[in-house]
């Protein structure tokens, strides 16, 4: 697993991407920072609850990143109305096959 500081920075990066430059004034920012401060590892204390909190934070970071990626893909590929076959094929990186001329296929 990634170190706790890296996970915390990753979560804050995702919050900044979703909320904007004023992310540090949001309730989510305050909650995340309070939880990381509350579950800080010290030399004397290393327990199961700390491992669970670290696992939960990794899971939350994965959720935030996956949600952001999903929204970007949805915005890119979601139908914006009717489109031609050529533009639909180009959207996913394909080309339509060219038909030979003289067989009634030409436009």
From TrEMBL:
- The residues forming the signal peptide are none
One annotated Gene Ontology cellular component of this protein: mitochondrion
Question: Which superkingdom does the taxonomy of this entry point to?
Answer: Eukaryota
Task: Quote any Pfam family the record assigns.
Answer: Complex1_LYR_2
Coiled coil location? none
Annotated family: Belongs to the FMC1 family.
Question: Per its database record, what is this protein's job?
Answer: Plays a role in the assembly/stability of the mitochondrial membrane ATP synthase (F(1)F(0) ATP synthase or Complex V).
Q: Which PANTHER family match?
A: PROTEIN FMC1 HOMOLOG (PTHR31716:SF1)
What is this protein identified as? Protein FMC1 homolog
- Source organism of this protein record: Champsocephalus esox
């Amino acid at each position: 697993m990634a170190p706790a500081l890296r996970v915390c920075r990753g979560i804050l990066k995702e919050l900044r991407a979703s909320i904007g430059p004023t992310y540090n004034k949001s309730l989510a920012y305050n909650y995340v920072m309070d939880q990381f401060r509350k579950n800080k590892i010290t030399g004397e204390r290393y327990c199961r609850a700390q491992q669970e909190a670290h696992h939960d934070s990794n899971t939350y970071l994965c959720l935030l990143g996956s949600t952001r990626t999903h929204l970007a893909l949805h915005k890119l590929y979601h139908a914006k109305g009717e489109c031609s076959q050529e533009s639909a094929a180009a959207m996913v990186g394909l080309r339509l096959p060219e038909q030979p001329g003289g067989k009634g296929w030409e436009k």
